[in-house]
């Protein structure tokens, strides 16, 4: 009978002699499989702190993208895919709106009469949380620009076209608010054909998070 290799005779992975090794081996394989199936962690721009709600822009020198709607624009939203999960967030807001300087445009920040549709107000309620500091109320995004940028894995500018608006919309398969947000943005485009708008849609897999 052939002699077993030395590493086997010594019981390194001899499953008959070392049943605990078998358990550890199977456990290690399961763990490695889970890690391989998990999305990589967020890799943020060096200017980002990693603190939730960080107002920093991940790429300060990056100019705003071209308008997707408005005079001379193609009339199609930019579609991106989320490649990474946002840590500790199983539910994500459905919309953020930005101005030409990368500022938030909302009823809590720089109000815009063109965003009067109730769908924008509902989206805003899930997009920000409020904090009182030294008598001042600050409205902080649940999903800040740094996290959005890291989630898609490509440089994403947050400046709207000049004199226009930037809609950054998160969409998913099980999204109850997506249709109402779509309709609200379509109404803005129809009622203001002269408005330069950049509309970016980010598809978020259900295994990453739900969209509220």
Explain how this protein is built:
- This protein is α/β, with parallel strands linked by helices.
- It is 26% helix and 18% strand.
- The protein contains five helices and eight strands; from the N terminus they run H-H-E-E-E-H-E-E-H-E-H-E-E.
- Strands 1-7-6-3 form a four-stranded mixed beta sheet. Strands 2-8 form a two-stranded parallel sheet.
- The termini are far apart.
- Mean pLDDT is 82; it is low at 1-19 and 21-37.
Give a short overview:
This protein is of the alpha/beta class. 26% of the residues lie in helices and 18% in strands.
Task: Give a quick account of the main beta sheet: strands, pairing sense, barrel closure.
Answer: 4 strands, mixed
Specify the structural class. alpha/beta
Give the overall average pLDDT: 82
The total strand number stands at: 8
| Distinct helical segment count | 5
Terminus-to-terminus distance:
66 Å
The rounded Rg comes to: 24 Å
Q: Which segments are poorly predicted (pLDDT under 50) over 5 or more consecutive residues?
A: 1-19, 21-37
The amount of beta strand, in percent, is 15-25%
**SSE arrangement, N to C:** HHEEEHEEHEHEE
Order the strands across the largest sheet as they lie in space.
Answer: 1-7-6-3
What share of residues is helical? 25-40%
